Amino acid sequence: MKHWALSLLAGLLLTACTPKTVLSPSYDFSQINRIGIMAFSNAWADLSGVENLFAKYLIRAGFKVVERAQLESILREHNISVSGYLDPATTREIGRILGVDVLLIGEVSSYSPARTELAMTASRRMESRPVMRQDVMRMPDGTYVGYTRPAGTQVSQSSEVRPTEYTINAKVAVIAKLVDVQTAEIVWIGSDSEESSRPLDAADYLARQLVKSFSKELAKREKK
Predict the structure, then answer these.
(1) What is the pTM of this model?
(2) Cα–Cα dist 173/168, whole Å
(3) Residue 132 banded pLDDT, cuts 50, 70, 90
């Protein structure tokens, strides 16, 4: 199974489309009735509860979902730890207790908070103005009269450097996978990244797109 999982991950990294998702070619997805949602591995408080976004879109896509809080409560009652690696015996026990067919496990793989940076911007200005000259003209009666006439154009340049603030959006990357509770086999895996001014907005978009991609792949499989 480990060899297959590594091949699946390698295929995922080589996939050119976004979001990047891969289905197990041999798994019977028609047997999936209930999905258990595990808490995502996440080191950032700004993205707490990302797994709930996946629950929302899985329900919208028509799946029956046992959400994280309920799942963890039941597992605590049965003294089952779900931290770290889930071995086949643990996944089978979870499936038996909760009546789920697969577990959604994931992680926030990277996060860059939104930030404001300061840049110095130079602007150049060019200005032209007419140059006038004083002159004297002799009148027919022999008198002289002073007057002003144009004598060309004077061009001047100036530059100004001023600070300019600009905002860089938050960037979030997520990896999610479905694990069969009987075999601990990874049957689907997807990853994507997104930018937004608010990290949870980016995470919401990722959940929606990954679940949408999963649903589309299942629809294609059913048509074959």
Answers:
(1) 0.70
(2) 16
(3) confident
